[in-house]
Amino acid sequence: MFPKPIEKAAPATQWAYRIALPISLLLWLIPMIGIAITSIRPAADLAAGNYFGWPSRFAFRENYTAIFENSPIAYYIFNSFKVTLPTVLGAVALSCLTGFALGVYRFRGNLLIFFMFVAGNFVPFQILMVPVRDLTIRTGLYDTTLGLVLFHIAFQTGFCTLFMRNFIRALPYELIESARIDGISEWRIFWNIVLPLMRPAIAALAVLVFTFVWNDYFWATVLTQSKDTQPVTAGLYSLNGQWVSAWNLVSAGSIVAALPPVAMFFLMQRHFIAGLTLGATKG
Amino acid sequence: MKISTWNLALAGALVASLASKAMAGDLVINTDASDPAPKKAWELIVAGFEKENPDIKVKLNTFDHEGFKTSIRNFLSADAPDIVTWYAGNRMAPFVKAKLFADVTDVWTDNKLDDAMKSTAASMEMNGKKWGVPYTYYQWGVYYRKDIFQANGIAVPTKWDEFVAACAKLKAAGIIPIAIGTQAPWPAAGWFDYLDLRVNGYEFHRDLTAGKIPYTDDRVKAVFAKWADLVKPGYFVENSAALKWQDALPLLTQGKAAMFLLGNFIVAPAKEAGLTDANFGFFPFPEITPGVARAEDAPTDTVHMPAKAKHKAEAKKFLAYIARADVQAAANEALGQLPTNNQSAKPNDPFLQAGFDMLSSASALAQFYDRDAPADMAKAGMEGFQQFLAKPDNVDQILGELEKARKRIYK
Amino acid sequence: MMLKRRKIAPWLFLAPGMAMFLLYVIIPIGQSIGLSFYDWDGLGEKTWIGWHNYIELFGDDAFYVSLKNNVAFLTLYMLAVPGGLAIALFLNQNVFGIRLVKSLFFFPFVMSQVVVGLMFSWFYAPNFGLFARFIGWLTGTQVAVLADSRFAIYGIIAAGLWPQIAYCMILYLTGLSNISPDQVEAARLDGCKGPQMLWHIILPQLGPATFIAVVVTVIGALRSFDLVSIMTNGGPYGSSRVLSYYMFEQALSEYGYRMGYGAAIAVILFAIMMVFISIFLIRMIGRERSV
């Protein structure tokens, strides 16, 4: 394990590390703390210019309940889940397949197809807006969760394919060769041998895709419009008025909205850490 | 990786719920009134309408204000509602030209709205037809600290010389005369509008924003010369391009600045910061060229019926409803703005009363620079105004660029 | 028989992913490239104008300013990659509560970029902003970063680096968890330590993670739309505009109804990205082939 495990270092170093950790965390999160404090300020503070000082009073309960009252944010969060979870499932599943195909097999067009996935991912969203919107309308999926999900699955597959293909390339090819010699079918090789090895990549990708799609604002505004389908990103800014922005409420709302991705990361960490079977050439 | 049966069931339930579409009501309204006060106003409006029309069920969709500006372009063609909120003047022009708004001249003639809404009728008209119904507008003017004025022996200025003198006195006393935030550049356009209206008059301003007058014209330069009288001695707050207007407001509420040219929406947050009617006041923009008829900026909010609306009869009923004096009075009370129907009851709030008097006695009403001028001209113009505030010596270069833009845009 | 199955297999695996991607991404890209040859306000009729949008673009000052800013973004954003690596190395220990610490370090990445931009713009604000006050205390004069056409773009880049470093950190944490312990042990036995170990043993194994980190950082640098929108609106007087924001301004903002022109800008942006991807892919493939 690198760097040297801290348990093996001198006690002084261990203590230094244990102290440095929370301090560095605090410094890193200063803007975050700013956002958190803003979220418990009353609006009067901001109008009076009290941006960074001690809040004139603690409007924690007031703000955090206001966001649930002024806008159906619980509903929006539910919608966000309805969009994000299927996207994660779909994109990761599809990219396991495509990554396997591009990573394991040599065939004409492998590089070209890989290039297509990577290039398509770099595309600025705005360039896709009108064609995708028209396609979604023509298939009758405008203002539906399914319409949004299908787009996200398709788009995220680009990045996920890149990720998976590289990960699979790094796996020892001998595993697959020995399985082939044993006469195992291609599908079984994928399902029983390679897929289990991809756990850390799947976990990391699940967290990343979850975060991307959860935080997407652009496509939420393009493809959805009603309360039944709008995810939290679009709904959150409805807390801002036409002239007067309620930044204290938006800060509170965005903290609430940020909790699910962080929770996802916290839960998936286990899978990152597993050392797994890399390096084992025996089946 | 094993997928348990429970996970599969969950996935199945999710997929099943995904394909459900939003239910269609009898009247679908899309608005960007996401602020608490406008939201309440709209709920009032809808509740009243449903009470009078028990056979019509209304579905009110509220969008966030910024996203709405993009979404409207999509849903007008994709899945149009029956009523949509928007703005008058050049803002509605792209949709009228693309035939996405419906002609509602019949609603105007049937309900005699040309009389009731005389001051706003012109801004709703294009090609001789009416394309929507206005339901609210608000005043712009100078909001100021009464107590600071009193403490420095300054009377409310009604003429330009008095105004400049007041600024000089305030600056000498260590107070920032004028607060402004131009990170979003439109507050600077408010200054340009008023200076132009007062120096050259409404007809000139209308022609300028319609692209008929070059920006290098001497009369335009005269406007900037008057503006420079305030900018060069440093009467505006410094570095305003880093501040949104809301971030510049604390200067006023903390007593560090004395005046702010803005719309009436400044009152609510100012009062929240602790200002009261005793120390916070309003006065109309002072006269500059004597004899020029007094015109005001009064941005108007409107409702329209999309051309692709599915329930046109119900929508027209709604348009007639929202044009009524009593409906507008009640809605505007909740909104904190002014009804466009001149038969509505006068509001109670002192700021609104001042605005009502000022607007109803004005000779003409402009819609604000970014609604009077077409979109790209508005953008170029506002950036020029923002730059002028920071670098007044660049005026000739700025006007040259605006003129270049004008030639390109008004083909 | 097996050989035949092996030949079709990749296509079968690829089919679903490719179909979706073609339908929702590749074909729309083609349609949008086509759009750039028209004059269209996004609502009504389209008019064919050939190369006119591009000709206008190359004479457009705003375009060159945006281009310059994008270059600044790309170069400075690269700092996120070593930054993320440094934090990942720092956190790659097993002390009590490290899982929580890692999640908290990751937090900036999941915060909405609008709120991040807002916070930083308050930091920089003249008079009350912490950063402005700090500079005032250090040097005597306050600098309003976002009001100064020389510095505005750097203020935005700094704000964007914060979540981007968190992103690279998580990629490197994944990579570090896959380092082969045998190689590390063997090197340790040979007396290899610290910086040498990092350079010769660890970094090569982190190749894939580095590649992805660079790719997403490039994508992030070219996409920085929310930050520009909330912090400066492209100002002051357009000095902090970037191509993605300029495209939005022209095509979709409340003052922009020029979809054809915006599409042309997007095509240029896409072309720039293509150059970068090609460079990376060629290097990556080259390195793979030589192994």
Strand content of chain A: under 5%
| SSE-based structural type of chain A | mainly alpha
Radius of gyration of chain B: 23 Å
Chains forming the largest contact: A-C, 106 and 107 residues
Let me know the number of strands of chain A: 0
Distance between the termini of chain B: 64 Å
* Oligomeric composition of the shown chains: heterotrimer
Mean pLDDT of chain B: 88
- If helices are DSSP runs of H or I spanning 4 or more residues, what is the number of helices of chain A? 14
**Global morphology of chain B:** globular
Write down how many β-strands of chain B occur, each being a DSSP E stretch of 2 or more residues: 13
Estimate what percentage of residues of chain B fall within beta strands: 5-15%
User: Which residue ranges of chain B are poorly predicted, with pLDDT under 50 across at least 5 consecutive positions?
Assistant: 9-24
Shape of chain A: flat
Please give the order of strands in the largest beta sheet of chain B. 2-1-3-12-6
**Count of individual helical segments of chain B:** 20
Characterize the biggest β-sheet of chain A. Answer: none
Structural class of chain B: alpha/beta
Helix proportion of chain B = 40-55%
Instruction: Report the helical percentage of chain A.
Output: over 70%
**Biggest sheet of chain B, in brief?**
5 strands, mixed
Task: Describe the SSE topology.
The complex is a heterotrimer of chains A (283), B (411) and C (291).
Chain A: H1 11-28, H2 30-39, H3 43-47, H4 60-70, H5 73-104, H6 110-121, H7 125-138, H8 145-169, H9 173-181, H10 186-197, H11 199-214, H12 218-223, H13 232-236, H14 247-273
Helix pairs in contact in A: 2-14, 4-14, 5-8, 5-11, 6-8, 8-11, 9-10, 11-14
Chain B: H1 5-18, E1 27-31, H2 36-52, E2 58-62, H3 65-77, E3 83-87, H4 93-97, H5 105-110, H6 113-116, H7 118-121, E4 125-126, E5 129-130, E6 133-137, E7 140-145, H8 146-151, H9 160-172, E8 176-179, H10 186-199, H11 202-209, H12 218-231, H13 245-253, E9 257-263, H14 267-272, E10 280-283, E11 295-297, E12 300-304, H15 312-322, H16 325-335, H17 350-360, E13 364-366, H18 369-372, H19 375-390, H20 395-409
Parallel strand pairs in B: 1-2, 1-3, 8-9, 11-13
Antiparallel strand pairs in B: 3-12, 4-5, 6-12, 7-9, 7-10
Helix pairs in contact in B: 2-16, 10-12, 10-19, 19-20
Chain C: H1 2-35, E1 38-39, E2 47-48, H2 52-58, H3 61-77, H4 80-91, H5 98-110, H6 113-124, H7 130-139, H8 152-177, H9 181-189, H10 194-205, H11 207-223, H12 225-231, H13 243-251, H14 259-290
Antiparallel strand pairs in C: 1-2
